[in-house]
């Protein structure tokens, strides 16, 4: 995306965030965050009751400073949220600029063409887009092949191929056709386009609290109520023992004790998580999906294209006994003439090496081509009585309804054991031989899967390919498990089975036949190049269409959950420590017996309270970078991580206030602030 280079801490974003944090003081927007709302009410009380009405016995300088720092506390929390939103807003601005007004060539039902403004196009309209033109709306190519510049959406300048029929048929409004022409069926009404949704997503307009965030907010609210009650009993206790606590002191104490640190940073953490995905070119349709990614137990990966390069190439023809290799090559080519898959194209090319000239389908008016589908696992052509087919061994065995000759059977086996895909070719009932399709396992996968294992996540490869090939590739790639000979419905069934045993499942896919599984998975990552159906079914879209991105997605999700956990731990530990820091200081004059509890020896009760309030505000600012960037991620088992984090952030949260408040108190006293 155009504005990708921004950091959270760019001057422009910081300035905008500073303004926004004032705008966010609006009680209506504060009410979404109960802890900070209470803090704002506290600031209003000290401002009105303490300052304007000068109620209470405190010196004005003290009330004034406490009031100021309470307002800062609220502003700092707002600033954290505004900063988290900043990068997305900048990106949304850049995206809006690409939403230029274009004129579309709409096809009327009689086949003639008319010029129509793009924003008048509706679902099901047909448009023609030629080289140099902007695609006026989201749609599905129904005719033609073209190269498309999608840099407006993906930030990636290399052109991509989009074509009718296959798994690369979806086009996005706002992108540009570079060569050739396409006929597109519009799939989105104005205002509901991918670009519109993307703008809404990156600027956080459609962000809703996730179930976990709601649960945490409820917990934090409960803590707030408990402390509110505690402070009121404190007041009663003061009245009973003739110590007078002013409104300012009680309010200051309350704010120090309620979980303002996590309360102030919670939404920033969530927004930053989604934003980190956007930086990786992944659009998460909901915060819930990001959270689920962090908790995933099982990853389902396609073999072809995900684990392997996916550009399966025919490398060899292995004829059956009594069949010349030219004859096999000829039949394989015939069966592949209209097969636009990489496999099909490579067969046509390899066949040419056997002296076969390139055939044209126009020479064969009576030919009826049967295209490949993941369900039938074969493709071919009917030439009057001849039925030429090529396909997976299992499917072909069913097709000829008899066993293969032994040498064909063993060729299938040899190819498979090498991790190749054997395609059996037959002319009606006669088996001609085997085509060896070679695919290459992507580099660096073993390490990545090792990372998953370290996190306790199981990786499962699913493939339509046969058992032997699947086993060979699974071993080479280092996945934990595999499912071979899988049809689309088997993928769906596998996901349901894993979910039924309480596991969260993630998967990637691009094809229309992946759509049900993408919808069923807890995290369904659709490839941007994929079909419209796949993109609508998943809850994330990868603009780079890189299936191994799932690994980064899981890491970002985990990092987001860990950051939230770490800062919650820190916040609560912090508040407990503050209790011991301030209360003894406040009471030690009236009750000298508690002297030994007064560990910190702060200057005076007034300086103790002011220092605690200042610390409480500054800790939010200090933790903003951690909240936005996330805690450092290591691929460790969940329970190990939990223990580590409890140790670091729990102990850190306990120690920080003692050190921080003591230092601030020294400064407050040195400068005679109270
Ligand atoms: N163009 C084709 N023509 C005929 N048969 C094919 C063609 N492409 C693949 N096949 C056969 O059909 C099988 C199933 O294909 P499918 O696309 O479902 O799975 P896959 O590509 O092998 O694996 P994955 O599920 O990882 O994509 C393949 O293993 C292969 O044997
Ligand atoms: K607090
Ligand atoms: Mg496939």
Automatic annotation (TrEMBL):
UniProt KW Ion transport keyword: yes
Binding, ATP: 339, 343, 372-379, 390
Residue span(s) of domain P-type ATPase A: 101-203
Gene Ontology, cellular component aspect: plasma membrane
PROSITE patterns assigned: ATPASE_E1_E2
Subcellular location: Cell membrane; Membrane
EC annotation from Swiss-Prot or TrEMBL: 7.2.2.6
Record key words, sorted: ATP-binding, Cell membrane, Ion transport, Magnesium, Membrane, Metal-binding, Nucleotide-binding, Phosphoprotein, Potassium, Potassium transport, Translocase, Transmembrane, Transmembrane helix, Transport
SUPFAM superfamilies recorded: Calcium ATPase, transduction domain A, Calcium ATPase, transmembrane domain M, HAD-like
Membrane-topology descriptor: Multi-pass membrane protein
Entry-linked InterPro entries: ATPase_P-typ_cyto_dom_N, ATPase_P-typ_P_site, ATPase_P-typ_TM_dom_sf, ATPase_P-typ_transduc_dom_A_sf, ATPase_P-type_domA, HAD-like_sf, HAD_sf, P-type_ATPase_bsu_IA
Function: Part of the high-affinity ATP-driven potassium transport (or Kdp) system, which catalyzes the hydrolysis of ATP coupled with the electrogenic transport of potassium into the cytoplasm. This subunit is responsible for energy coupling to the transport system and for the release of the potassium ions to the cytoplasm.
Subunit description: The system is composed of three essential subunits: KdpA, KdpB and KdpC.
Family recorded in the similarity comment: Belongs to the cation transport ATPase (P-type) (TC 3.A.3) family. Type IA subfamily.
Protein name as annotated: Potassium-transporting ATPase ATP-binding subunit
UniProt source species: Desulforhabdus amnigena
Gene: kdpB
């Amino acid at each position: 995306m155009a504005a990708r280079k921004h950091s959270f801490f760019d001057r422009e974003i910081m300035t905008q965030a500073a303004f926004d944090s004032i705008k966010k003081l609006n009680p209506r927007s504060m009410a979404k965050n109960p802890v900070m709302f209470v803090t704002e009410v506290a600031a209003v009380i000290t401002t009105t009751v303490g300052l304007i009405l000068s109620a209470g016995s405190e010196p004005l300088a003290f009330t004034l400073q406490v009031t100021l720092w309470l307002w800062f506390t609220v502003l700092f929390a707002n600033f954290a949220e505004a900063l988290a939103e900043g990068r997305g807003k900048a990106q949304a601005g850049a995206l809006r600029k690409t939403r230029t007004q274009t004129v579309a060539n709409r096809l009327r039902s009689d086949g003639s063409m008319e010029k129509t403004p793009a924003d008048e196009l509706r679902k099901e309209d047909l448009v023609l887009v030629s080289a140099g033109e902007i695609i006026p709306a989201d749609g599905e190519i129904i005719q033609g092949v073209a190269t498309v510049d999608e840099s407006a959406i993906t930030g990636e300048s290399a052109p991509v191929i989009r074509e009718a029929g296959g798994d690369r048929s979806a086009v996005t409004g706002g992108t540009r056709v570079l060569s050739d022409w396409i006929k597109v069926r519009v799939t989105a009404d104005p205002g509901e386009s991918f670009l519109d949704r993307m703008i809404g997503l990156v600027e956080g307009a459609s962000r809703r609290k996730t179930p976990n965030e709601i649960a945490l907010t409820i917990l934090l609210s409960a803590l707030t109520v408990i402390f509110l009650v505690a402070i009121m009993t404190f007041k009663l206790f003061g009245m009973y023992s003739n110590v007078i606590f002013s409104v300012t002191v009680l309010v200051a104490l309350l704010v120090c004790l309620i979980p303002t640190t996590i309360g102030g940073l919670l939404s920033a953490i969530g927004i930053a998580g989604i934003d980190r995905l956007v930086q990786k070119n992944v659009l998460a349709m909901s915060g819930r999906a990001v959270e689920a990614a962090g908790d995933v137990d099982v990853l389902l990966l396609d073999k072809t294209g995900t684990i392997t390069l996916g550009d399966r190439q025919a490398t060899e023809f292995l004829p059956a006994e009594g069949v010349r290799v030219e004859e096999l090559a000829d039949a394989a080519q015939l069966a592949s003439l209209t097969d636009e898959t990489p496999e099909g194209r490579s067969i046509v090319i390899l066949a040419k090496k056997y002296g076969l000239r390139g055939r044209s389908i126009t020479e064969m008016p009576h030919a009826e081509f049967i295209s490949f589908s993941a369900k039938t696992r074969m493709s071919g052509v009917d030439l009057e009585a001849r039925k030429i087919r090529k396909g997976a061994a299992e499917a072909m065995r069913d097709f000829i309804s008899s066993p293969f000759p032994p040498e064909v059977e063993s060729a299938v086996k040899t190819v498979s054991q090498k991790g190749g895909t054997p395609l059996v070719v037959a002319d009606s009932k006669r088996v001609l031989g085997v085509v060896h399709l070679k695919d290459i396992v992507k580099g660096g996968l073993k390490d990545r899967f090792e990372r998953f294992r370290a996190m306790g996540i199981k990786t499962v490869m699913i493939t339509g390919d046969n058992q032997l090939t699947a086993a060979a590739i699974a071993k080479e790639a280092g996945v934990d498990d595999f499912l071979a000979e899988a049809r689309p419905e088997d993928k769906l069934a596998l996901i349901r089975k894993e979910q039924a045993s309480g596991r969260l499942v993630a998967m990637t896919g691009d094809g229309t036949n992946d759509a049900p599984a993408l919808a069923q998975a807890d995290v369904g990552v659709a490839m941007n190049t994929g079909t419209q159906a796949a993109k609508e079914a998943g809850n994330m879209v990868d603009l780079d269409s890189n299936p191994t991105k799932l690994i980064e997605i899981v890491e970002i999700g985990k990092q987001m959950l860990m950051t939230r956990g770490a800062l919650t731990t820190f916040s609560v530990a912090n508040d407990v420590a503050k209790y011991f820091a301030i209360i003894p200081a406040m009471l030690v004059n009236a009750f000298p017996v508690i002297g030994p509890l007064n560990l910190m020896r702060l200057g005076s009760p007034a300086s103790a309270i002011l220092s605690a309030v200042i610390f409480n505000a500054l800790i939010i600012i200090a933790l903003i970078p951690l909240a936005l960037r996330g805690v450092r991620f290591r691929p460790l088992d969940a329970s190990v991580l939990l223990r580590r984090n409890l140790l670091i952030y729990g102990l850190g949260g306990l120690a920080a206030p003692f050190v921080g408040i003591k230092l601030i108190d020294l400064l407050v006293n040195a400068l005679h602030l109270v």
